[in-house]
TrEMBL record:
Belongs to the OSBP family. One of its GO terms (biological process) is lipid transport. One of its GO terms (cellular component) is plasma membrane. It comes from Caenorhabditis elegans. The keyword Transport applies. This is Oxysterol-binding protein. It comes from the Eukaryota. Transmembrane segments: none annotated. The lineage of its organism: Eukaryota, Metazoa, Ecdysozoa, Nematoda, Chromadorea. GO terms for molecular function: sterol binding. Gene3D superfamilies: 2.40.160.120. InterPro entries: OSBP_sf (IPR037239), Oxysterol-bd (IPR000648), Oxysterol-bd_CS (IPR018494). Keywords: Lipid transport, Lipid-binding, Transport.
Length: 436
């Protein structure tokens, strides 16, 4: 036992590593929005929340300038940004290595939440959003309005991901509490192996006064039909970045109740894995170094013998002035040439309220938003357009993709939004920049 302890001690101490983040851009995408961003802390959110105390917070409406120019369905598509991790996992013959990459993907899906304090637009009932990128097709549809439920489906040659999101929002003391109720199931096509997890809860602090920030407030467990499971903990233990809350994350890979490997890192930057005993031996020093370097750009401590599983993509230079959008997110509301003729008439890109907000035309955005909401109330009164097109409840009571969307027959779809002119969606600053 003494010899084993000395061998682990001789492996060295945690080292500060500079993480090289790639700038990943979709072909032809813009690298900035047309207008700038009004930070939520620059306005009184309390004046908006106070009249809604005691009400169902999932239903209350905020002024349009408090929104970000994306619908909630588009935010869900950000989950496929790091789908290469699932492609890696699908090719792993080792069960342990496979769950490492699946766990990395699950963590990466929450990374786009960093500093995102603006509210996305509530999708209209039957609103959809599609995305085809990097070998993956993604589709989301708003299948219920009260309560709000979004159904999602993504597919590549190697895997499918399906699930539902039913967000709720509450207020307690000086913070907002958000529970996404997001339940996702990953299936690898070749083996049939499945992994299921739910997104963590979060809290937004200082909504009455002070600088707002967010923290995740629950665990995230990834359950497998195979040998191993994984659990992430976002418990706030003081590893605080004044620029964006507590970004520390720890976890473990389990075989039954036994901890086999440790998972650790910064959920906005990187995830690494190592032998659980090695991490226990170095944990105190690792945490000290993490806290000392958390405010440094692209840095973090790495325990000897670790494998780096994931590093987040480079963020734009205008990150703080562009709703804290990643490069991936900046591309989601663009209507590329020819796309208007192919995407469904229910697609979020056709929303004129979001486009007006992108352009800094808040009054116009408010008018379109009000128009869409009134039309939705009219449909509810006449009971028209209330049956989802692409998802239906299966025998287990879960929303499942019915198929057929990519056949491009939208003759039975509602005309939720008027079409947008292509020329209005691609500005002169839409060019690719290698330095972003």
């Amino acid at each position: 036992m003494v010899k084993l302890f000395r061998e682990k001690k001789d492996m060295g101490s945690p080292k500060i590593q500079n993480f090289k983040r790639q700038t990943v851009l979709h072909k032809g995408q813009r690298t900035r929005l047309p207008a700038t961003y009004i930070a939520p802390e620059d306005v009184s959110i309390w004046d908006i929340i106070r009249p809604n105390l005691g009400k169902d917070f999932s239903r209350f409406t905020v002024p349009v300038f408090m929104n970000e120019p994306l619908s909630f369905l588009q935010r869900l598509s950000e989950n496929v940004q790091y789908n290469y991790l699932l492609e890696k996992a699908a090719k792993c013959s080792d069960d342990m290595e496979r769950i490492e990459y699946v766990a990395a993907f699950a963590l990466a899906t929450v990374s786009a939440n960093h500093k995102r304090l603006s509210k996305p637009f509530n999708p209209l009932l039957l609103e959809t959003f599609e995305l085809e990128r990097n070998g993956v097709r993604f589709l989301a549809e708003q299948v219920s309005h009260h309560p709000p439920i979004s159904a999602v489906y993504a597919e590549s040659d190697e895997f499918t991901v399906e699930g539902t999101v039913e967000p709720t929002l509450g207020f307690w003391m000086t913070k907002l509490l958000a529970n996404p109720h997001a339940h996702l199931k990953l299936t690898f096509k070749k083996t049939g192996e499945t992994y299921s997890w739910s997104a963590p809860k979060c809290a937004i602090y200082n909504v009455i006064m002070g600088k707002m920030y967010m923290n995740f407030t629950s665990h995230m467990k990834i359950e497998s039909s195979g040998t191993y499971d994984a659990v992430f903990s976002f418990d706030n233990k003081g590893y605080y970045n004044h620029k964006g809350g507590d970004v520390h994350v720890e976890g473990h890979i389990f075989e039954g109740k036994n901890k086999i490997k440790a998972l650790y890192g910064n959920w906005t930057l990187f995830l690494a894995s190592c032998d659980n005993e090695d991490f226990k031996h170095h944990r105190k020093e690792y945490l000290r170094m993490f806290n000392e370097t958390v405010s440094e750009k692209d840095q973090g401590p790495v325990v000897p013998g670790s494998k780096i599983l994931w590093v987040s993509n480079q963020i734009p230079k205008l990150f703080d002035d562009q709703f804290h959008f990643t490069n991936f997110t900046l591309s989601l509301n663009e209507m590329y040439p020819g796309m208007s003729d192919t995407v469904a008439p229910t697609d979020s890109r056709r929303r004129k309220d979001m486009k007006a907000l992108e352009d800094g035309k808040n009054d116009e955005a408010e008018e379109f938003k009000h128009k869409y909401e009134e039309e939705q109330r009219e449909r509810r009164t006449t009971k028209t357009g209330d049956v989802p097109m692409w998802f239906a409840k299966n025998d287990e009571g879960h929303w499942a993709y019915k198929g057929g969307y990519w056949d491009r027959d939208y003759s039975n779809c509602l005309e939720l939004f008027e079409s947008l002119e292509n020329s209005s969606t691609n500005s002169s600053n839409s060019s690719i920049s290698s330095v972003d």
